[in-house]
Amino acid sequence: MTDRIVIALDGMGGDAAPEMVVGGAARARRNIPSVEFLLFGDSERLEPLVRKRKVLSGAVEIRHTDQVVRGDDKPSVALRAARESSMRKAIDAVKAGEAVAAVSAGNTGALMAMSKFVLKTIEGIDRPAIVRSVPTVKGQCCVLDLGANVQCSPDHLVQFAVMGEVFARTVLGVERPTIGLINIGIEEIKGHEEVREAAAILRETPLPITFTGFIEGNDISSGRVDVAVTDGFTGNVGLKIAEGTAKLIASFLRDAFRSSWRARLAYILARPALAVMRERTDPRHYDGAILGGLNGIVVKAHGGTDSLGFSNAIGVAVEMAVNGFVPKIKDDFERLKNTAVPVADQEPVA
Amino acid sequence: MTDRIVIALDGMGGDAAPEMVVGGAARARRNIPSVEFLLFGDSERLEPLVRKRKVLSGAVEIRHTDQVVRGDDKPSVALRAARESSMRKAIDAVKAGEAVAAVSAGNTGALMAMSKFVLKTIEGIDRPAIVRSVPTVKGQCCVLDLGANVQCSPDHLVQFAVMGEVFARTVLGVERPTIGLINIGIEEIKGHEEVREAAAILRETPLPITFTGFIEGNDISSGRVDVAVTDGFTGNVGLKIAEGTAKLIASFLRDAFRSSWRARLAYILARPALAVMRERTDPRHYDGAILGGLNGIVVKAHGGTDSLGFSNAIGVAVEMAVNGFVPKIKDDFERLKNTAVPVADQEPVA
């Protein structure tokens, strides 16, 4: 049992929980035989699901709890009242060192509030950010913040850039990731004060990161950079616009293939090729958003995910743990602390 | 010559100007025989282009000017120094009542600055916004602001909602357009103060508009509302993310159809159906963004547009003029002024 990797799972979070959680765990273990699970939730429902799957035999410890965080629970209420919930217990297991990461498909706000409270942010980071990779023409791009912080100061954006860089190195395996700051134009004078000031700081950063300057919305999927940084409002809306656009085109494509007998025949012929394409854009393959900046790894799977998506989120958690996401961020912020010019001493930005 | 509609054209704005401007004018006149043009720019280049096209015979008055606004001119510099430019002259023609609208594919910032200076905003509107319609599963949705205002107060967002509603009635012909405010969730507590306060004001508005509350990024293309309101930063980034996503999927689709002989054959069979689909998503059919909120109609065509896109932008200008976009907005703001509770007297927003 060397190199055991223990992941704590919120067994009850997500629309299709607990079935998809256990199914996801089984899928993940098929890919990563060294992974084991601490599974929190209603043991009466979880046990038969685990027993059914041979691959999970001996790899899952179920810890019973009755309490569940619901999708519409306010974060502050969940934080105060749901201390015995499956979500909270999973995070506590990371804090206690029983697991290297927690994965949940439950309420994002509650997960963020609990994670921040239990694990605390890394020194130098004011606020955790939600990070995920999205497909591009050239591969993948890490985008943050995807909704944790609706308003961000220049310092927050700079911290996101550093976190995103580590994420790209750790999860995407890019050696020297390039970082772009999302704006409404690439010229220095464009945008509001926060992005302009963040760019000014990043241009002068003593860290060995590759800041390429401003990028525009379309530069994410064109693969111009490995990391795209923005505030949580723009990031969240943008991600959902991208999802909506993909659905719209899929619906247009369906209409097109149904529009004539000739098109229907074409569809039959094109099916294998289209399946490959669907695979490339399948959001389940990109499931697993990290709450970055914490003293511990917490991964959020999509609320509506299935076992495939959830297994991918577990895979992200394992990769982050194995590749030392948290210590790498700590290193960077340690270095930043020792070398950075305090922001207040920077030249004023035009 | 009853019902002449005269449109002022910036003959030199846009990457493919002046050819695509004259080509666009010809296309537009084929669709709308009553349209005529005041064409500003280098007469030596414009005259032969116009002469070549029979459909424009007798329908174009060329007004010579040497000065051109370049794509990288700063708006403030263009405003001060380019008073004789083809862009400025086209806007001046609207102010002078010689044309009912101006269309330009030139520098957006300069066009906005000049239009605001020459035409002024309608009483009750603090800042013009950029409005455009985008395709949805059900039809089209008007989105604003697409980049004119990087930071917006609640009042600005409310004004955008009213403008957008008129736009949807005028250009899309929707009788009672529904309006949504873009946020990172649909619950009242979500988002930053500006959107929450704007929503509170819109819920209480005395105008007969249909405010449906918060929407998320994916609700634009799902067709949930006729008008989607957001600040210019989010709107600009979001629009470009949508464009980027569409390109990404098109590139995946191309790869898919090239991946095997079977897929190549399928492509040949599917070509007519795919052409229809391409037509539905072709950005040129949605070209023509309005600078809304001004005492006059100014339409911005995409900088990289061709004659098809430019003719569509002319079509938008004609529709706005014929259907009384400006007087309708004026009516609404007049009503708003007479009935509205001052914002300061509103209940505080939680």
How would you summarize this macromolecular structure in one to three sentences?
Two copies of one chain form a homodimer. Chain A is α/β, with parallel strands linked by helices and 350 residues long.
Structural notes for this entry:
Two copies of one chain form a homodimer. Chain A has 350 residues and is α/β, with parallel strands linked by helices. The first copy, chain A, folds into two domains: 1-122 and 293-329, Isopropylmalate Dehydrogenase (3-Layer(aba) Sandwich), CATH 3.40.718.10; 126-288, Isopropylmalate Dehydrogenase (3-Layer(aba) Sandwich), CATH 3.40.718. In chain A, β7 (178-182), α7 and β8 (210-215) form a beta-alpha-beta unit. Chain A has helices at 19-31, 43-51, 75-81, 86-95, 108-119, 154-172, 193-203, 218-221, 232-258, 261-281, 307-322, 325-339, and strands at 5-10, 35-41, 60-64, 101-104, 129-135, 140-144, 178-182, 210-215, 227-229, 289-292, 297-300. The first copy, chain A, has an eleven-stranded mixed β-sheet, with helices on both faces. Chains A and B meet through α8, α9 and α10 of A and α8, α9 and α10 of B.
Blueprint (SSEs and pairs):
Two copies of one chain form a homodimer.
Chain A: E1 5-10, H1 19-31, E2 35-41, H2 43-51, E3 60-64, H3 75-81, H4 86-95, E4 101-104, H5 108-119, E5 129-135, E6 140-144, H6 154-172, E7 178-182, H7 193-203, E8 210-215, H8 218-221, E9 227-229, H9 232-258, H10 261-281, E10 289-292, E11 297-300, H11 307-322, H12 325-339
Parallel strand pairs in A: 1-2, 1-4, 2-3, 4-11, 6-9, 7-8, 7-9
Antiparallel strand pairs in A: 5-6, 5-10, 10-11
Helix pairs in contact in A: 1-11, 3-5, 4-5, 6-7, 6-12, 9-10
